Input
Amino acid sequence: MGVLAIQGDVEAHARVIARLGAEAVPVRREKDLDGLDALILPGGESTTISKGLERLGLYEPLEAFARSGKPVLGTCAGAVLLARAVENHAVRSLGILDLVAVRNAYGTQVDSFSAIAEGALEDLECIFIRAPRLRRLGPGVEVLARVDGWPVFVRQGAILATTFHPELGDDLRVHEMLLCLVPGPEGG
Ligand code: GLN
Output
């Protein structure tokens, strides 16, 4: 399981993956993607991460990785980077998740909050830190959880995205879902 390690909440994701018995591999260059079965784009500062992606020439390799059908989870800034388009404070996104991300839609750092989402996972506590909102979802995007009516956890094929931080706290179910999308050795 790769974790994009340019900036942001890399260590917290690695800890969750280790708790689930998988190995977290930091991804900083194209060849780090070789042999990975899935990838996490962590939260952080999407402007900084996008500059890193540009500098390291990682846009095309990451897009190819996701389009090959391998599972990808983007959280918060990672969700912004997956989006088809970014509505404000534009950053270059990968364009592989059919929705529009609105950055910092809930306010600044002091407006961080947690809430219980409604949806597929019961009692899912979501921690929002300068979270984006997701709008104009395409027909292939399924909403797995909502808070105040807004999608906070979505899925399009093997791509998962959360506007909250599932790596903070003790609930491992979002990462478990990602691991479940990895085909077994038999390809099943
Ligand atoms: N608002 C930040 C951004 O768009 C994301 C915040 C986060 O990942 N916690 O870069």
Summary: The chain has five helices and twelve strands. The radius of gyration is 15 Å. The longest helix spans residues 10-19.
